[in-house]
Amino acid sequence: MTPTLVRNHLDTGSSASADAGSHARDRAEIQERMLAPLYEAVYDRLEVGAATRMLSLGCGSGLAMLVAAARGAYVTGVDFDRQRLTPARARLLSEAGRDDAPARPAHRTRLSAGGRPAAAGPDGTPYNLITVFEPVGCTAGDSEGLVPALEAAVPLAVRGATVVLSGWGPPERCATAAVLRVAARLAGSARPAPAGPGDWRPTLRDDLEEVAARAGLKPDGSGRVSCPFGYADTNSAVRGLLSTGLFDAAVRAAGRPRVEEEVAQALRPYRRRDGTVWMPNVFRYLVCAA
Hints:
Blueprint: H1 19-31, H2 36-46, E1 53-57, H3 63-70, E2 74-78, H4 82-96, E3 109-112, E4 127-136, H5 146-153, E5 157-168, H6 176-188, H7 207-214, E6 218-226, E7 229-231, H8 234-242, H9 248-254, H10 256-266, E8 277-279, E9 282-289
Parallel strand pairs: 1-2, 1-4, 2-3, 4-5
Antiparallel strand pairs: 5-9, 6-9, 7-8
Helix pairs in contact: 1-4, 1-8, 2-3, 6-9, 6-10, 9-10
C-alpha cells in the first residue's frame, strides 16, 4: 500500500462531517496567511526561483504553493484531505484568470489528492525541494504519518535534494500556546488517560530533528521566524484557530459550542482596544538533505 502524503493528525475519521467544508474555508480565508512569513523566510534562504521543482506535502489551501510559484518555481501540492484542496483549486483557478498575475503562478502549480505524486515535470524532471509547512510538534502523534510520507516522496527527488520541516517554536515564545491548552484540557475531560492522538502537547526542542532522523534525513541548518496571529475580531480568531484541526479532539469530547466559548475567553488577554486579536508566535524550520 502506497504511503499517503498527508498530515496525519487531521485524518481523524471525521473529515466527512458537516464541519469539514467550513473548516477548509476558514483555513483558507483566515488562518493560512498567518504562516506567510515562514514561507517567505524559507524561500529567501533557499533562493527559490525558476530552477526550483518543489513538492509541497500537506499543501492544504495552497498559499505556500502560490508564493513559490510567484517566484518562478514549479510546484506540486499533495494533500489527502479533499476538503482542504477545494479552496486550493478555487484559488489556483482564480489566479489563472488574472492577466496581471505575476509569473502566471497558477500555470506553475499542480494538485494531487493523496497517493504518490507525479514527477515534477512532464519530462520526468525530479524534485529538488520538498517542503512540509504543516507545523510538527503540537499534537500527540502528529508526526506518525509524516515519516512514511517523506520516505515515499524522497525517491521522487534528486539525490541530496533539500527537505524543509517546520514546527511551532518554544511554548514560552508562542502566545497561542495558552489558547491551545484549552484544547488539551477539554479533550482530556472525556478520559483520565494521558494525551491521545490529536491532543495538544507542548512543543519539544528536538521534534523536527527526531522526524528527520526517523526519515533518514541529514539536518543542514535551521531558523526561527516570527509569525504573529492577527485577527479582525474574536469571532474570526475562534474560526481560524478551530480550522487548524488542533481543537478537533476537544470538539468531539465537549461539543463545539463549549469549545468556541472557552477559546473566546482564552483570547481575552490578546484583544486590543479596537477589538482585534494579536498573538505573537515564533515558528521554527529545519533544513535537511535527502
